[in-house]
## 1
Amino acid sequence: MSIIEIQQAEGRRTPLLRRFLRKPSGVAGLVMLVVPLVAGLCAPLLARLEGQDPSTLHTNLLDPDGGRPLGAIGGVSADHWLGVVPVTGVDLFAQIVYGIRSSLFIAFGASILSIAFAAVLGTAIGYFGGWLNAVAGRVIDFMFGFPGLMFVIAIMAIVPPEMPRGLVLVLVLAFFGWTVPARIIGAQAGAINARAFVEAARATGAPPWQIIRREMLPHLFGLVVVLFAMSLPANVSVVAGLSFLGVGLRGDVPDLGKLLSDSLPWIYSGADVWYMLFPGAVVFLIVFGATLAGDALRDVLDVRTEDAA
Amino acid sequence: MRDPVLQVEDLSVSFTSGGVTTDVVRDLSMRLDGGRTLAVVGESGSGKTITGRAIMRLLPRGASARGRIVAAGREMLSADERELRRARGSDVAMVFQDSMSALSPYLDIGAHIAQAVRLHDPSVTRRAARARAVEMLDRVGIPEPADAVRRFPHEFSGGMRQRAVIAMALVNRPALLIADEPTTALDVTVQAQILALLRELQQEYGMAMLLISHDFGVVASAADDVLVLYAGRQAEYGSLRDIFEQPAHPYTTGLRAATPRLDARLDSGGKRTRLRAIPGAPTSLRDAGPGCAFAPRCGLADQVGERCVVEVPLPTVRPTNEDGGLHLAACHLDRLPALQEVAR
């Protein structure tokens, strides 16, 4: 058996990306996640393409009596692709793409930070156990008992105006977001650490870092992806809630949550359902896409579900 | 005389939990030379697995070992983590009972073996380590090793997996192999193949093997010497021949009577015999009394009397059929009655 033959045998393994792209649900999820993300990233460009901006008022497009947009589907036209916002007449498409930019990036930032921290801490808890587990466990208990939302509201209320509110929101959400994932990952890591193949790796002389990286992390990856996919929509809604309460982003910064909460009376009265449907569809796409892509990624990473091909 | 590959002196292992300390292994000594196999035999809970783990210093949390263990020239009990890591997998290796759980489901077979190679010689390239893995799989008798190397554990049969585990343990040619029930999870025909493979590789590499088993059949086909453990203590030690031909501890005879034998008919003069279980359950280590741990289950304790329940018997020298062989038994009885009488 020559080395060349071995390399050839090795080469037959399908790369990760191709296996992911072979899964229709994964590709669909990825597209649903990436399209709004790119739209958010390119918000100024898209708004200019449309010929609008997210702050100009177009009161001439509103019904003077009640302020609902004139025309069908919430005032959709060649100039205003998704219509205009009731009462103010601001362009809804520009509001949405700018809104994705602010809320999604805050949610992403907070989820990445909190899940990354939870993954590191949870793995350490699982591997080292003992006093680390005891101390971290008590801290997490304390955080559970802590009125997090009250704290977030208080913090956001006293943030000095010169500080970037978006960044503060990311940090505050991350600070309260790591506890549950850390506990879940810690429990799972502890269970893996007790399994025989970790013992076997130790018996071949593997150092702790190697055991964590090669034996434990592959088992935890799926869980981390799922926790991230769960954390993202939760953070989107918390940002929306805070904006609704007036302690989120500044009033003049568009964000999806604010759009949704502002649209509530219009959908209750049935006067302008499109005001909620358009931003709602975007939130739905992002959340559903994250879930689908997360599931597919987990399946692809799990060698046991890989087909023999 | 050459230095033994494994020397254990007065090894005691204790567990502390909830402020209570329990000795699970007590005052154990053994010696094992290269190319030889020492079988450690006993029931569940007799401390045989813990003894194997203690030699590699892979004890569970809460366990501590005292005494002295020298394996392949290394003081295992006083070594620091770095030195232990250097010893594990290169001087001393281990084969586990359950091959399915001893292999990570996320790594292919080759990765397991290549990792063991590169851990002990970082200068080996990834590619060369994979090539070593293929060679080693070929050596342990896995067909089409170049293909098998990139299979995952779940794609292998039990026997193949155990071969892979052996390849992983032996790829660095350890001086000492600790085989913890290596054939227990396998069916009987595969058992024989795996034992034969282990013996063959042992001869080839000249390594010492500590075979942990509860199965006297396995012991009889693979061991040179036998150490019988009961409740963490040495009950009897001797050559395979002495243990089988003139056992000097009632526990050894009890274990033997409980092992199915193909030649049972001859033994009992043509009459069919039932297997005899040792009465009672293994002694709880926590409430061990002052006397012999086996006394409550021993059919001969009443022949000795009081002494069995008040005094722990120490290993003493017994007659041997082997030239220069050492035969020890920890029993107050100097001579056991013949096997049939004990079993009755």
## 2
Amino acid sequence: MLTPLSHDDPAGLAGFRLLARLGHGGMGTVYLARSASGRTVALKTMHPSIASDPAARTRFRLETDAARIIGGHHGAVVVDADPLAPAPWLATEYVLGPPLDDAVDLCGPLPEESVRALGAALAGALAQLHASGIVHRDLKPSNVMVTAYGPKIIDFGIARASGDDRLTRTGSAAGTPAFMSPEQAVGQEHTAAGDVFALAGVLLHAATGHGPFGTGQPADLLYRVRYSDPDLTGLPQALAPILGPCLAKDPAGRPTTHDLVARLHGGQGHFADHLPDALLAEIARRASAVWQYRPERLPAPAGHPVAETVPVTAAPDLSRRRLFNITGSSLLATTAIGAAVWASTRERDPDTPKSTDSGNAPAALWRRNVVTAAPAELGRPLVVGDKLIVTTEAGVSAVEASSGRNLWSGNAVLSSWDVATDGERLFAVDYSLYPREGLHIAQIDLEDGSLMDPAVSAKAYNGKLVGNQLLGIDGDVAWLLTARVRKEDTDESSGVGPERGWLIASFSLSTGRRRTELILDEAVPGEYPWVTGVRANGSNLVLFFRTESGGVDVLVVDTRTGTGVWRAPLGLNADDAARNPIAVDDKHLYTASDAVRARRMADGGEAWRYQGKNVTAYGPPTVRDEVVYAVEAVGARALVAISADTGALLWREKNPVASGHELKVAPTVGDKYVYKHCAAGLRAIDLRTHETAWLHPESLDRFSALITAGLLIGVGEGPMVALPLEPAGPASS
Amino acid sequence: MERVHTESSRPDRARRIGPYHLITRIDPSGPGQPPVAVRRFIGRSADGDRTVIVSAPLDGADPGRFLVEADAARRLIGPWVLPVAELAAPSETPWYASPYLPVLPLPVALAVHGGPLPERTVRALGAALSETLAGAHAVGITHAGLSPASVLLAWDGPRLSCFGAVRTAAPDGERRTGLPGLEPGSLAPEQASGGRPRPPGDVYGLGAVLAYAATGHTVPDSSELPPSLRSPVTRCLTRDAAARPTASEVLSTLAGAASTPMATVLDPSGALLGPGWLPSRVIAAIARQSAEVLAAEVLTPISRTAGN
């Protein structure tokens, strides 16, 4: 809750201006604060008197490390920190949602559906933490913030690295008795299984409003934690067999976080879909209240020596030197470092038991958040050399593929349909950059995002049309969806669009001349032909158009002559089709709906159709090296590999794990594995053994394989994640 | 619908409108999006203290008429109005600004939700908007700008924006069909043919907005509408202005049909806007936007020195 600053709070701290108090305790104070660049953060500070204790300082540093490792998906994004300052501080994102204990107080016990979604997400978060060699040790309802996109674990005040006994030696009585594990209660090692015990207590509290061992004096609680059966009163019947075993006194008898993820929740829908209205309203209220809060400061008591009020808007305190400084874009720098730490701690800990969760999954090389104010606008990242080009609501930005580092951004004039690449160069079409007449295509300087002089300037075409799309770059040729300038178009008219005359034109980038022009005949007044996918292959350009009804039409264009070869409706949903690259090779176009189909590139006729026994639907296909891959959308959701030439089944995934999610993402094919998207995350299926090699437990809805950079890039609702493309699985290492 | 463009001919990283550095656009641009009467952005002052929704005219719009309407919009008050708090000086390129609140334009809310909004949401939206219009009409103000994109959804209710878009697009007496920024289905026939905007035109726009919220487009077949909304919406969309209900009649139809123990004379739509009035994914998108704008940084010389 936002409360006014006290009269003796400083105006600024570590370069942040303080706006409000978020919390206050024996260790220090948490403020709502703002950086000089306008970023609003939660700033946690430790009293200098407490920071003089080396153990407390160590805890603060470990908390900072743990917060970096858990990252912004399951925790609060770390913006900056200085654990070595006289008054150590940690700046994280201000999390928009109530702590779980407040949520239960406010909304009453949560419905089973909410508890399951929370539990699955928290178990996933713990799995990630444990895989990095960190145990939380103080999971309790007040340390779980419930946001609209999932819970975030905060406050790693006593988290520590496994096997790190520096804190134990100080004899600190860590943990909260009500949610403490029996082994923690007797001062023994609290392992990952201890966090599972605490998680069950937290979920029990969410579902019933009471903890597993009631309330009372710490000594009584500790006794009950060790000897009493947990109180499961009020727990929905179906949850008892899941949470009960987590509260076993013997750590070895508890399920793993991975088991919990699978048993609690199938992964359908968005997290917010599972929350009760009252809780959603509270989240929304908090998300809005932070903008309506006006900074103020309580007056000093009468006669107080510092009664002169310091204005909150005073210049930021820049004099304090940050010893642990991170320059540049804080978000990227910190997440990159977090990922590096995560990766290295994993390597140090090769004995992570296979049964615990993600097991052999490779650690993400980096992750970053992507601004997606309008999800529909976000395309797949483009791969240009060693860079990723990401188009978001804020425009086009470039990210270094190997590190996730932001290279440049903010070219907000461009949308995803304004840019295209040949893999080496990036081009853009946009009238707004050129207040001249006509249509212009220019190369974007990959070093800084600026536009070079136009390679093509065509006065006969209307560059102001909103529906213009740069479809693709194929060698020297740029393909465009555009229209000619009409007489009545003036410089002032903004591009509402011609009523007739949309066309597919191609231009030579070296000479700037127009090569070909193909007039499209679907000119619906006020409608734009909307190309949702393009793939050039050999002698053809394959275009997917969104139809008025939300379906997809395919148009195949001869790249030499620019003439249409054939056009046909496909039984696909345009939004779903737009997520995936078009599956096409020299001979066929492959689609999947009720069956996997191959159409001849030459004339659109059906070459073959594959439908497994009792399988009525398939997810989108991928083709590579004469093999078509698709996932059965019913039953066990097995991956099938089909001969691209004949349509004969080559192999079917062994021991598939059933999951009930919607299949919208095509598999991605590497040299060793096929990567399949499933409810639990990304599953790598070995191309030799045909079974799962590892699972990356993070649900992401778009994947781009970046073979050259050795990376697999996934884009989810928030994060973009880079995984090593062909990590050595257990079978080959 | 309008594409964003810079004020200079060169791409400028530190893009600004008035004193505000732009963080992001409010409206998605591109094919398939209903037109928006203004270019809207989330912006932030250089000192980072003020975050605003800043609006600027479309290319080619008359800057004088734009400023006149922005100024007049300050007379439109009520809880469901996006207030115009700041206005460009007459010598500047025109813009106006409102304090930032996390909001989604109605078309974005439909996109996020995955289709038409639930009847409960549409009804609450209709009550809040008709309440606002009834108040304006009572003091002789005609909004003249209702369209799907003019309705912003905040967590606690709508915020009506784009005041005077019809009058800005073309002066009275000129045909207004096919003008940029005007959503054809939301434009009352008498206004399209050049008539001076009057309250019945707002009611027509309200009908189009509710139709859009309930079906995804502004000119629905009446069978597409939920039965309970069919009559009020189609009556609002009557071509004959005289046959349309007044805004207060729409309000009593929408707010009266629900059991509203909490509704009062002063707050007739309050009960409809309680928890659950927005679908979960719309709430989630509002929260996400808030988090992203909180995290947004505006690069200024100050922040560069702060890193040293």
